[in-house]
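Hi R.,

Here's the chain you asked about this morning:
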Amino acid sequence: MSIKLLIDMNLSPDWVPLLQTAGWATTHWSTVGDPRAMDRTIMNWAEANGHVVFTHDLDFGTLLALTHKTGPSVLQVRGEDVLPDHMGNLVIAAIRQHETELQSGALVVVEESKNRVRVLPI
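And the predicted structure, written out as tokens:
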């Protein structure tokens, strides 16, 4: 079963077609929820609907650590330029490499120079 991605408000909706073309069901939060929603609301929606949260926001990793939950998984992109034309290939490669962990429950951090994986709960 392929993962489903929920893109946080802090990332461009331009990620949607790129990730869909790569084969993943992808939704931008602005199309399913209140753009001003709290991170916990987004996390709850993602968990209830079987999505991995894709974000640039460090708070999602903190929420996972504080709650010791086993989901939802979070894919976090780090860097100054987090637009798909700059980080797209790195993110796609990271998802492919760590898809099993993302399905099981993980925090995957994608940076230009490396990826890090923390299996949930943290």
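The first strand starts at residue 4 and ends at 7.

Let me know if you need anything else.
M.
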